[in-house]
Amino acid sequence: MLRLNPSAHNNAHLLLTLILMALSLTLFEPLQLWVLLLVLCAVIIRVSLYLNWQKHQLSIRTLNLMAILCAIVLAYFGWQLGLLLGMLNLLVMASSLKLMLLASRRDYFQLIGVQFFLLGAALVFNQNIAFSLFYALLCVLLLLSLACHINPSARWPILIKRVGKLCLQALPIAVLMLLVLPKLGPLWQMPTGKGTQTGLSDKVSPGDLAQLARTDDLAFRVTFEGNAPPMSQRYWRALVMEDFDGSNWQVHPYRRKLQERYKGANQTFSPQVSGPAHSYQIIAEPTKQRWLFALDVATSQDSHVWQSHDYTLQSRIPLQSNLAYRVRSYYQTALHEGIPNLDKRLNLQTPEQANPRTREWASQLKAQNTSAEQIIQAIAKFMQQQEFRYTLKPGRMPVDPVDRFLFEEKAGFCSHYASATAYLLRLSGVPARLVTGYLGGEMRGDRYMSVYQYDAHAWVEWLSDEGWQRLDPTAWVAPLRLQFGLEQAVEFEQSFLADAPLANLRNIEWFNNLRGLMADMDYWWSRWVLGFDQQNQQDLLKALLGELKLWKLLLFSFTLVAVIALLLAAYHIRPWLQARQNLPHWYYQKALKLLARYDIQRPYWQGPQDFSMSLATKSDKQSLQHFAILTRCFTHLNYRPLTAQQKKRLVRQMRHQLRKLKRSLAKK
Amino acid sequence: MQAQVQQAIGQIGKLIIGKQQEIRLALTCMLAGGHLLIEDLPGMGKTTLSHALAQVFGLNFSRIQFTSDLLPADMLGVNIFDNQKQAFHFHPGPIFSQIVLADEINRASPKTQSALLEAMEERQVSLDGQTHMLPSPFFVIGTQNPLHQAGTYPLPESQLDRFLMRIQLGYPNWQAEKAMLQQPQSQRGQALPTIINDELRLKLQQQVLEVHASDAILDYILRLVTFSRESERFANALSPRASKALLLAARAWAVTDHRDYLIPEDIQAVLPAVAEHRLRSSQADSQTNSGLSLQLLECVDPLAA
Question: If you placed Cys at B141, which of A222, B50, B60, B173 could pair as Cys (CB 3.0 to 4.6 Å)?
Fold first, then answer.
């Protein structure tokens, strides 16, 4: 059966169609390609209907067939997607099918409702300020589409004005809800695995970091409560790697197992700390991994942060979206805890084969020097004498990389130096491990800094009697890296950010200013909107109320509700009082409302007497009679000259009849 | 007293069958002391209705058939020199009667039309410096062919405004027309008895003035006229004279309903007759204007507080 075209020049439908398309495009990553294609098809169909190129809708039968096919395909692929992604795909698929079907008011309202839900779901995947603003815009456009649907003949400026007014009214409520409503944790686990991971990885071959250092993506931001530490002290620990196979470093499998076990038992490592500390909040960008970043020695009270025995912090859930956490770093405390025996055992392991020249040299070192400090001195001296270079473009070292680096290339990135040094130390009998993370950070203002991927760094920790000592071999060959960051350190070879687009613009001042401004805005967004967590909320309440107590909280919420109620009342009280003053009118309108509930509506223009007459066919005799008397009283009161006495009597009669009418209608 | 009004309506209804509402409106117009314009095609009973009204009220009646060559003097009368008395003597024209049927008023030239309309407004005739009072009561019942008929001079809005009401009779329905055809021939020529004599008419007219119009009703009238002025649908809106006319007509209607106060239904009953010829649509394509006052009615809530 052919169905007529309900969308021809229907602006509400067109707007809805475009919104669905825009929304799906922003969800490019989590959506499957075929779902996007389906959306595109639906959009094309709807637009051609709008332009009246196509006069008829698809038949229901075709659509049903398509829906079954889609459901089968989704069921087939959906297993691997996990709940959230599967549901998202299902929702987008369903709304595109509904869009093809869209004919009645009901379809339209359903689709609008689903779009609002999808907007909320989309915010799970895209949270930065640009997307948030875009989604807000889509939300307003959805409302506009609704307004247009309800009042199709109204002109756009009127509709926009109306919707704008509504949004402005809703804004304070939204802000209030953000500030006051309790913050719930995420209700579902975000799926992992899909999408490329960014930033560090838990396995490092020395060339990797150099690659990473050529991108300028944001890694995390820090807001300090006091002063920020100097540049050369900003060693952000992320991962500790203790397993070396001759070319690559990774987190030791045994350590990993141990961490799992502790986490399972819900035990966290809490180091003894003393001395001065830096307090700060970090907002980490999503990495889809669990590790977090902090200065040594870090402690965190946040419930979603867990600490491992290698002093690293980890999140209990993978970082699918920005994660904020608070850290106190006691920078004078030594790293002397952990699990000493295990640490020693793990960090002396070396591969049997590979890198023969290094092993030979290490045995010489061991023979010539007695203490660890001396060995380190010797390595430093060797590197400085042999004029090692620091470069972002290290040569390829596929076989025996340490040998090749130390004795042939003599040029490498921080990870090469750290890897070689740690290996040498291990070979000489000093427990040593590789730590990866970030060094540095760009201050913006005097309180907060941004740390980018190009700040990625690797350094060495060796175990002395006082605990783990930090050793940064990069400092021997490129002291500039520590003091001024990577850009200065590799300035001579023009390799900084070689892979980032627009990198050449970094030298133009206004572009840098613009970049700074964007970063600032993004920071404020992350800090105050996305990062507005339970802690912030409590701080705010504390700032408002002082010490938090139950009765204070209760009082506060009641006051809040009361204020809102009062405002609403103030808004409504005048019309209400006015209506209430004219009692006959008041009763008559009440009677009309009663009848309207039983589907008897007075035409807008009809006089009371005519209306009462017209009821004869629509109502039962009893209520009819009551309403007729009511109407008569009303007309007398309203249009006849009466004495106060008569008026009183009639009003009383009206009230009486109204009650009777209510009763007789209810009986029906 | 009320019985007589009903009786009058019934009597006229015997001649013009199935047009109760229009007859009542015509009667209302007479009670309100306004002039009546009947617009319809030839042969719909315009003349019959006017005759019947004159008879029921017991007033003397004259009929002027308007043609394009009718001059004002033909209607108003002339001063003729009397040789015997050596003086001009006024010979009154047909307009000097209590009910004047101005038949096919829009066939006359504008000059004649305006002479009639001046007489209607002033209730006197000025000729050669002499003023002659018209008899009292003085009703003009104009009839008019629809404008698209050949050889008509449409009345300008300012002159249409002088008529309190304009009614259209329209075709009778099946039963009514059948009843009319079944009437014995002899009955048709019979004159109607006088039912509302002068005394009663004056009493009723006094009552009309005493009908109570509450604030709510006045507000309703004001809402109606204001809407006509503010809406974009109407090129010509309702003037203050129109709102006065509306109130007056509604009062007279209430009297025919034996009520001494106004209710919104009174306004709604007379509004099409009172307002239709004063409104003009702003849309060029709707030439007939039909239903403009109904549109107006349906846009205004009589109960709005």
Answer: B50
**In chain A, how many domains are there?**
3
- Report the predicted TM-score, pTM, of the whole model to 2 decimal places: 0.53
A322: closest CA among A248, A220, A411?
A: A220
Q: Is the pLDDT of residue A388 over 50?
A: yes
Q: Of B263, B301, B305, which is closest to A604 when you measure between CB atoms?
A: B301
Query: How far, in Å, CA of B173 to CA of B17, rounded?
Result: 9
**CA A499 remoteness from chain centre:** 27
Taking an 8 Å cut-off on Cβ atoms, the answer to whether B305 and A606 are in contact is no
Is B47 in contact with B55 (CB distance < 8 Å)?
no
Strand partners, A442: A450
Q: For B214-224, what is the mean pLDDT? A: 91
The predicted pLDDT at position A7 comes to: 74
Looking at the structure, tell me whether residues A397 and A465 fall in a common domain: yes
Note the helical H segments in A126-205.
129-150, 156-180
- Give the catalytic positions of A in this structure: 414, 457, 472
Q: What is the mean pLDDT of residues A197-204?
A: 68
State the residue range of the domain holding A661.
582-667
Beta strand B124-127 pairing with A411-412: unpaired
Supply the pLDDT for residue B287: 52
What ipTM goes with this model?
0.83
User: How many percent of chain A have pLDDT more than 90?
Assistant: 12
Question: For B211-305, CATH number?
Answer: 1.10.8.80
CATH of domain B1-197: 3.40.50.300
Determine contact: B298 vs chain A, CB below 8 A.
yes
Percentage of chain B exceeding pLDDT 70:
95
Q: Domain coordinates of chain B in residue numbers?
A: 1-197, 211-305
Beta strands B124-127 and B77-82 are unpaired
- Closest Cβ opposite residue A608 in set B214, B262, B303: B303
Residue that has been written with the tokens 């942060």 in this structure: A305
Residue A574, in any domain of the structure: no
